[in-house]
Amino acid sequence: QVQLVESGGGLVQAGGSLRLSCAASGRTFSDYTMGWFRQAPGKEREYVASIRWSGGTYYADFVKGRFAVSRDNAKNTVYLQMSSLKPEDTAVYYCAAAFRGTDWQLGAYEYWGQGTQLTVSS
Known about the structure:
The protein is mainly beta. Helices cover 0% and strands 50% of the residues. Strands 2, 4, 5, 6, 9, 10 and 11 form a seven-stranded mixed beta sheet that branches. The chain has a four-stranded antiparallel beta sheet with strand order 1-3-8-7, with no helix packed on it. A hairpin with a 4-residue loop joins strand 7 (67-72) and strand 8.
């Protein structure tokens, strides 16, 4: 099984950058697709980005060109580099692990972290 812990959230001004990290435990970490999701107050959780065990990356249209997802299998860590941040990006960000399934579907993910808060000020 996999345990996930997000970190790196905080307060940042609009237009700024921040990197989120997701530390994972488990010998089979490299076998999973790792995804990032976010949820703002009063809104449903939405897909942000993901990276497959093969290294391929995928993004939601609203963050493409601003965010970049990467992974370091040796460190059992996944990253989300965020640039040109907007107040609309304010949310709790979650990382998740999927052994198989479609990257952008919540139901594909078996393991979830507790989330880290990002607040973007105007």
